[in-house]
Specification:
Length: about 425
């Protein structure tokens, strides 16, 4: 009788469907190679979900129309690909939204006074904003209104982090309710501006607080001028040299990149005499074409930097770029990773790249290969008594794997760097 009851209970358990789940948050990463998306959920651990050909999309035609930091809602059953991915879009009242051509016309035509307000939190504004904009964060309504002009008929244009960011709509609403009659919203925001490869400015005080090896500071003036007076930690790379490098990369068909900066998300700050100097604009355009996504130009350039008495030095230009990523939660330093490779007794290395990448790029000797899109179903293959060190091509899939592995209760870290493999199963990190 007991056996029959046990069998019945098991059958009943197996017949109960796994409940579907819904998660809402902002995209941190998308890996098309692994058909996987990582979502940052406010106040909770990141969620990693797969997608496939059966996944339906709402408000977009497919995964190619999504990118960080879009706000999305995902319906899925744990362990299976998402059934529905919905992009959450905040609309504007009719007649309020302007496109990038209209915004450029406002900035270039000088037909009258305007205020271009960045409605994001001030920290976001400082590290990169649309030229001529001022910080008007909407989270503090009282201070927001203080930033607005006395003339209620003056043109006001607000932007934020794109269509999935609510701050543009909030700024428009508050300003309109306060009696302003000519209020517009650039809903594509800073992501749309960057996608058009238009210049982005970095606040001078913010740059002065980030003169470290986690930020790449490049003086694009002629080398003799750069040597005479420059920002601390700056490297000299004249605009003419950058243009020549672009031509060389095209001729040799080699990947276009700065020496020492394989991470295309690295924060790069360029400067010349002013932010409108041809050398600054040309350098921005060229490096952006190389695929670097987080490039800014020093607002006001060196002239404004000098006038505010910010730090300067002479004849101390760095001979080469020394860049290191900030260690985010769960990341392992490159030096420690290489030390553990020499003595892996207490660890297991897990490679989450695809089979094709392993075949063409090589792999670390004795590492365990589990592609990211298979990891969820192969958690039981991972040891419970050793630390798991995850790596991939550039750190993105490794970080996704870190979320999956740690949420399964295992001890893990991930390499947020670009490794290179030799034919002998050895590894180096650029």
């Amino acid at each position: 009788m007991t056996t029959k009851l046990a069998v019945f209970a098991l059958a009943l358990f197996l017949s109960v469907p796994v409940l579907a789940d819904t998660v809402k948050g902002r995209i941190k990463y998308i890996s098309n190679k692994a058909s996987t998306i990582q979502i940052d959920v406010k106040g909770k651990p990141a969620v990693v979900v797969r997608f496939d050909k059966s996944t339906q999309f709402k408000n977009v035609d497919g995964i190619k129309q999504l990118s960080p930091p879009d706000l999305i809602k995902v319906d899925f059953v744990p362990g299976k690909p998402a059934s529905l991915i919905s992009k959450i879009v905040f609309g504007l009242p009719e007649g309020v939204e302007i496109d990038i051509k209209q915004l450029l016309a406002i900035l270039q035509n000088n037909e009258g006074p305007y205020l271009l307000g960045d409605a994001r939190p001030k920290k976001k504004y400082l590290s990169g904003h649309i030229p001529s904009s001022v910080s008007t964060p909407v989270k503090d309504k009282e201070n927001f209104l203080k930033k607005l002009p006395a003339d209620k008929n003056q043109l006001l244009v607000f932007y934020c982090g794109g269509p999935t960011c609510p701050f543009t709509a909030k700024a428009v609403k508050i300003a309109t309710e306060a009696g302003y009659t000519n209020v517009k919203g650039f809903q594509k925001g800073i992501p749309g501006w960057k996608k058009a490869k238009l210049p982005v400015h970095a606040n001078r005080d913010w740059v002065s607080r980030n003169l470290d090896n986690h930020h790449v500071i490049i003086d694009v003036r002629p080398a003799d001028q750069a040597a005479a007076t420059h920002l601390p930690t700056a490297v000299s790379l004249p605009a003419e040299s950058i243009v020549s490098m672009t031509e060389d990369f095209a001729k040799t068909q080699k990947p276009a990149q700065l020496s020492g900066v394989t991470d295309k998300r690295a924060p790069i700050i360029l400067y010349a005499e002013t932010h409108a100097s041809r050398s600054a604009l040309v350098s921005f355009k060229e490096l952006r074409s190389w695929g670097y996504k987080n490039i800014t130009i020093l607002e006001g350039g060196l002239n404004a930097w000098k006038s505010e008495g910010l730090p300067l030095t002479s004849n101390q230009l760095a001979s080469e770029i020394v860049y290191s990523k900030k260690l985010v939660k769960g990341a392992i330093a490159a030096s420690e990773f290489l030390d553990l490779v020499k003595d892996p007794s207490s660890t297991v290395f897990v490679d989450v790249r695809t089979d094709a990448e392993i075949a063409t790029q090589g792999a670390l000797k004795d590492s365990l290969h589990i592609p990211l899109d298979s990891l969820e179903s192969r958690i039981s293959d991972l040891p419970k008594d050793k630390e798991i060190i995850l790596y991939c091509e550039n750190g993105i899939r490794a970080e996704m794997a870190y979320s999956t592995v740690t949420q399964a209760g295992l001890q893990a870290r991930f390499l947020n760097e670009t490794p290179r493999f030799t034919g002998q199963g050895e590894i180096t990190i650029q």
